[in-house]
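Bumping with the actual sequence this time:
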Amino acid sequence: MTQLGNNYASKIVVLIDEYDAPIIHLTKGSDLEKANIKVMKDFFMTLKSLNSYFQLTFITGVSKFSLSDVFSGANHLDDITIDASADAMFGYTQEEITQTFSLNLEGIALEWSKNSDKEITKDMVMKQITHYYNGYSVVVDI
């Protein structure tokens, strides 16, 4: 394992997206789910043992609580799910979207208006984008 640290001038950044994908659609309690959870648990325990080589480990998924046993061996991680300081670190804020992509939003509104019996505005496009990415909190019907 020392070779891992010797080949890099700086520490490694580990990015894992949708860590829970191998099990979220499996039948709860099935043999395959149990096997996949064991593999994942072993993987995260290995990550913990190599932690001194990492500058950052960033893990995303949608199953925080139902897979808590997966992380029992990786109890060194900080959960920033509801940390206010992490809000603007990942993705775009609504203000950034409306400022940076204003012309794009206008173009989308014009294109959507061509296929609609009513005029579509930039605000309506933003509501639809919000619905698509935050559908659990906003319901929009254009």
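The tokens above came from a reply further down the thread. Helices lie at 2-6, 31-49, 94-100, 102-114, 122-133.
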